[in-house]
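Here is my example:
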Amino acid sequence: MRAICQYCDGDGFMKSPRTMCNEIYRKLAEFLQQKREKLPSETKTEFKISLNSEVLERMKNDENVLIPMEKKFNAKLLFRSDSSLHIEGDKIADVTKIDKD
């Protein structure tokens, strides 16, 4: 799916918020799986995900994807809107606190 680009007045195309959500879900699952393999299973991970506001608004309707993903990977996903990001942009930061006993 594609939408008319608001950045170039319709001269080109960009991915729609729905398409970006699907790409982010795949990217997050892969990222979380890689992190999970490096940590003990009981370690709860935490990630901050910054998205374009349109993508984040679309993603709010997808709890049926995000909640199972958090449970599967024992992760807390914190989302925030970043108006400086292009609709096809995202940032994922690992903010897991690991106790070093």
In short: The longest helix spans residues 17-38. The chain has a mean pLDDT of 86.
